[in-house]
Amino acid sequence: MRVGVFDSGVGGLTVAKSLIEHKLFDEIVYFGDTARVPYGTKDAKTIIKYSLEALEFLKSFDIEMLIVACNTASAHALEELRKNAPFEVFGVIEPGVLAAINALHDKNASILILGTKATIASGQYEKLLINNGYQNIASLAPSLFVPLVEEGFFEGDVLQSAMRYYFKDIKQNPNAVILGCTHFPLIADAIRGYFPKSALIHSGDAIVEYLRTKCCLKSNANTTTIKLLASDNVEALKFTASLWL
Ligand code: DGL
Question: Which of 43, 77, 78, 226, CA to CA, is 20 to 30 A from 116?
């Protein structure tokens, strides 16, 4: 099966990595909108417009399903994408919430959602968690984490200082931290160092579990190949893929 994976840029490779590791698909056609990243600072109208353009582009690659790896696009554009796609479209928010629920034991558990400004402003994670009976929820948009990851700061003083700044008001170790942005799994070790007792929810693992349980997809591809496409500087995307995948 050939699946399209769409992200605003390189970050969605963290989701592609999980899909490759679990061999759910024969082929991934990955499109990163590197010319227009970041989406996380843009308004809903722009995010929807860019996402629909990405869908039109990916339609020409004969894909049978689309996975929106980008949390920001999942938060704002999923409904429009579904209306306009001739195949199934999955975002990462519902899978992330289900993974958090599976990791938690009671409804009083505390949950910290980390995402871009646009993802947090959408309130999508909160809404789904509240619908499932959770109330002890905090949300945060540590915007500097995205450029830090892009620059390869996966550890060290600069990242630690950004973490101290963003997390200064979080007094208790949350029971779960939702890494609601494609880039954050790459700094999961640093985040775990900050919140050692929290379950960390990773969009890539969450979507794999979701596809297995909701769509009954099995890990029966011998190997998963990936075709890398970008709206700007595809060589940079390929280089990052060679490091991350
Ligand atoms: N891919 C985005 C997300 O997961 C992060 C980068 C951006 O702001 O476009 O929300």
Answer: 226
